[in-house]
């Protein structure tokens, strides 16, 4: 299984909005590499929802619930979207500062490619981030 990190500006759409709505179309992605990643997503894969802007922290977990499809609002087959569904709010948000300070995460694409809004997360990084989320850092 592939895991993901999806960035969102909480003033536009937060994890709490996703919880309220239950599911949503994950749109607004226009970076070519981020779109490439979206095109590879599969139903059932999990994603960490990361708030950008002033918050800069992981807030929740979501599930990919559709295959990628052309964004119906744009009429452009190259601009794809997926549907995501809220799974759970994290017990303890993990900040960008915590991620940067963790030696196990130093090569994580969130840090290497800070402008990409869709980031793949390896199994190792996923497990490490879950440890931070659950407060078990050792």
TrEMBL record:
<protein>
    <submittedName>
        <fullName>EVE domain-containing protein</fullName>
    </submittedName>
</protein>
<dbReference type="InterPro" id="IPR002740">
    <property type="entry name" value="EVE_domain"/>
</dbReference>
<dbReference type="InterPro" id="IPR015947">
    <property type="entry name" value="PUA-like_sf"/>
</dbReference>
<dbReference type="Pfam" id="PF01878">
    <property type="entry name" value="EVE"/>
</dbReference>
<dbReference type="InterPro" id="IPR052181">
    <property type="entry name" value="5hmC_binding"/>
</dbReference>
<feature type="domain" description="EVE">
    <location>
        <begin position="2"/>
        <end position="131"/>
    </location>
</feature>
